[in-house]
Write a structure and sequence with these properties.
With about 180 residues, this protein is an alpha/beta fold. The protein has a single domain, classed as Rossmann fold, CATH 3.40.50. The chain is about 35% helix and about 20% strand. It is built from five helices and five strands. It has a five-stranded parallel β-sheet, sandwiched between helices. Helix 1 crosses helix 5 and helix 2 packs parallel to helix 3. It is globular. The structure holds flavin mononucleotide. Flavin mononucleotide binds next to helix 1 and strand 4.
């Protein structure tokens, strides 16, 4: 199986998850290409892959700006060249896992849902089945928001994602690749 592991991470939490995803895929003997999105013109050929993991931290309820810019441009290109068609015909073997790391200080997981839905839509438009959506807790690491990691809706989330979170991710990766 040819797997793409695509992510954006500003403060390193999503990167921890993406690297654990990469290690687990390799342990299972599959090829994986990991791409960290740094700019809206990051080069990525989604249609070459039949399994895609895509993730981002959540910022103002949405994925990071570079990922949003890249996905907007990709969507426009895929529409223009006919890879995205009305009714979004399925690509039978194409699967996607969409995930985020999020702090949820104000409204818990509800403020992370728009980010995951946003990312998933590019793949759904392309005919990929969304086989899982994962919400992984990630502490606030910037100085102005650090206190949210203690005072927010999710309680004390310092050091998340922690070893247990990452073990959980590895188990779920094994699960979805068995599908
Ligand atoms: C500027 C900023 C804005 C954030 N906004 C949200 C938000 O709207 N909702 C949320 O659940 N978490 C929010 N967070 C928490 C991050 O989503 C969380 O720390 C995430 O793990 C960061 O991922 P990264 O380290 O991969 O960039 C915010 C964090 C920062 C620094």
């Amino acid at each position: 199986m040819n797997v793409l592991n695509l992510y954006f991470s500003s403060t390193g939490n999503t990167e921890k998850v993406a690297l654990r995803i990469q290690d687990t895929i390799q342990e299972l003997g599959h090829q994986v290409k990991t791409i960290k999105i740094t700019r809206k013109d990051t080069k990525v050929e989604i249609l070459q892959y039949d399994f895609v993991f895509v993730g981002s931290g959540v910022y103002g309820q949405l994925p990071g700006q570079p990922l949003m810019g890249l996905f907007r441009a990709l969507l426009q290109n895929y529409v223009r060249n006919g890879d995205i068609k009305p009714a979004a015909p399925r690509r039978p073997s194409a699967k996607t896992v969409v995930y985020c790391t999020y702090g949820g200080a104000h409204t818990g997981v509800n403020e992370a849902i728009p980010a995951v839905k946003y990312m998933g839509q590019l793949f759904d438009h392309l005919g990929y089945s969304i086989v899982a959506e994962w919400y992984i807790v990630g502490e606030y690491k910037t100085d102005n928001l650090r206190s949210h990691s203690i005072t927010g809706r999710l309680g004390d989330i310092r050091d998340r994602p922690n070893a247990e979170d990452l073990r959980d991710v590895a188990e779920k990766v094994k699960g979805v690749l068995r599908m």
